[in-house]
Amino acid sequence: MSEKTPPPPGYMPQTVETLGAYLAAVQPLRARLGGDPAAWRIEEVGDGNLNLVFKVYGEKEGVAVKQALPYVRLVGEAWPLPLSRAHYEHMALSEQARLSPGLTPEIFHYDENQALIVMELLEPHIIMRRGMIGAREYPRFAEAISTFMANSLYFTSDLALTAEKKKAMIAAFAGNTALCKITEDLIFTDPYRIAKLNRWTSPELDTYAAQWREDGDLKVAVSQLKLKFLSQAQAMLHGDLHTGSVMLTETDTRVIDPEFAFIGPMGFDTGAIIANFLLSYFSQDGHEESPGARDAYREWILATTEDIWTLFDRKFRANWIAQPTGDAYPPDLFQGALGAARLAAERNSYMQTLWHDTVGFAAAKMIRRILGLAHNIDLDWIKDQKLRATCEARALLLARDMMVNPQNYPAPAALTQAARRMRGVTPQLNS
Ligand code: SR1
Ligand code: MG
Predict the structure, then answer these.
(1) pLDDT at 1 over 80
(2) What mean pLDDT is reported for the chain?
């Protein structure tokens, strides 16, 4: 848990009663919203774990407002959390917007002292996780998220940046330690030990939770991933790239909420999105109207999982080939046909390593959503507890194998095939 640092003088958490006056005092926002501020409609809609989120509707336009609280909203004031996360979010959002235009919300206003960002109101977009619970297909998503990841990861890596710029970026994000610590604890540590905040579907999954705490191979594997997370400053990460951090329609995708941004291993971001697709896949049994009713949707999820990686891989390599501007792999060392062939082979090896990291980090993210503090509504909303535990146990079993035996998953098709097989398994549950 973070030390309690007092909020800066003047910091005030907004409410639906106070926000109108705040926004009306910022002339460009007042003009954007339009009309009489007293008539603006304001709703608090935050359903995430950390912050306040408001929708504000003026006579002309609407805006979204996100404000950090000095504590973790999910847990309360007993868990202080620095407001500086809004600073890192703003910095990451600005960089992501530059690298992937049109794939993030536009920022209209940032107030560092209030830890408050005013941005584009995304409507009729919805949170992707909710759309997937409702079996909605998003035919453009793989294209959009692969572009977002290929650009934000490639162009902030040593493949694209000079060492000087890369080190400046590491320094700029180095202070986001409290948010990194949440990840270090909640994803890489707590699910594998007795921790006060852990929870799982009990008693059905009690034996799994106990086995996961006793599993030496798994604890070594997750510790290796944690070490990568702690030490591998590969690129600027979103840091929390799950389907709750995406708002979209069938034709427009936006990535939101990069407050966990820092310079870390790329597979942590690519793994996050794959993990959440696999969790959605396993959860569909708990949401379908009758057995088999969502077979086609399940196949859409798996096909899209494969597309996400395939498109990402293609775009990342294309960036590398077109713009090898970084200090890594200096073009001078790879001249001529022989040099080009060596570099091409090295690119293959780099992407294979990144895929294996993706599989490992995806596994860690699946396990934390089932045995740790913060769960996903994809699974939590399954009312039939036994059915929920069945879906969760399948995800746990696949995740364990992904983490301990990544060589079983040389390509995305091997992963999706394993998911299909695992769905056919009837797990043992406690009663
Ligand atoms: C205490 S914060 C729990 C989780 O919420 C965020 O979305 C991150 O995933 C974090 O791990
Ligand atoms: Mg978030």
Answers:
(1) no
(2) 97
